[in-house]
């Protein structure tokens, strides 16, 4: 069965997902936004576009007519409106949000739904939950599951050692909100920017610290099986301390709009990025105390005749693989669907999921148009 998909959001990720799906014969894509300039850039990629105000429910439902699925690649605060429209239209719903409150709204909405609602399909939350659960289920009992993800510039030059690679609003949001974790078997909220750790990979020093939303629903899923489960964002050393000055000492956590403006003004965008996923689990297997890890580093690559950044590749791989697995019957097509319901091997064997490992995506004749 072919799928007709509406992507809400004509930004970096929405464009990438559109090109990837449109390059395959089983998918037809329309990208929706209110920003006419952004839609004009999408049209240059050969994708269909539509000007849609998703805060107008009737307008959104009309745009979803005859669509099999909708992907929200819009800011996190639009999640409730888009998910509600999807339910009213009878359309499968996917999103990329890291926002905990928005995901709980989607979870409640999905309880009596006739279609599937699968939020948090990007990188973190998203793929990191798939990888983390893959490790956890190999243990009879998990002592610690530590999940770390970083989307970073390859050549940092400023004091923050950071460049804009994805949504500034999403990044600031996860720096400011409480973080879910399992601690001594109990689901708790821990403060962002705390639990600082340092480590070295391939001769490069990194730090990581609590940020919000990266675990998705994994804590709930592993309750009773794992003692401690945590998520941290990876950055170069010194980044966290500067954030604490800005957000806590200067109280910019109370002015997230201003913090976003400062970042967007002062930090350059880079296409030379890297994405690291580093998960470690310890626990007992057949009575022995063991440790297992998963490590993957993604870099920019060419897809459908165009060069894309590592964060675009990994985020697009997460949601397109989830869609494809659902379309082919490997995921439930009704109710709330968790990321950890995806089998890691099936994900990486999928044509879209394989992009995570740097595998080239074979494209159809439509690619020439989409590129």
UniProtKB/TrEMBL annotation:
Saccharopine dehydrogenase NADP binding domain mapped to chain residues: 5-97
Classification via InterPro entries: AASS, NAD(P)-bd_dom_sf, Sacchrp_dh-like_C, Sacchrp_dh_NADP-bd
Pfam family, one: Sacchrp_dh_NADP
Residues annotated as domain Saccharopine dehydrogenase-like C-terminal: 122-343
Gene3D superfamilies tied to this protein: Dihydrodipicolinate Reductase, domain 2, NAD(P)-binding Rossmann-like Domain
Keywords in alphabetical order: Oxidoreductase
UniProt xrefs under SUPFAM superfamilies: Glyceraldehyde-3-phosphate dehydrogenase-like, C-terminal domain (SSF55347), NAD(P)-binding Rossmann-fold domains (SSF51735)
GO-annotated molecular function: oxidoreductase activity
Protein name (record): Saccharopine dehydrogenase-like NADP-dependent oxidoreductase
Organism listed in the record: Maritalea mobilis
Organism phylogeny: Bacteria, Pseudomonadati, Pseudomonadota, Alphaproteobacteria, Hyphomicrobiales
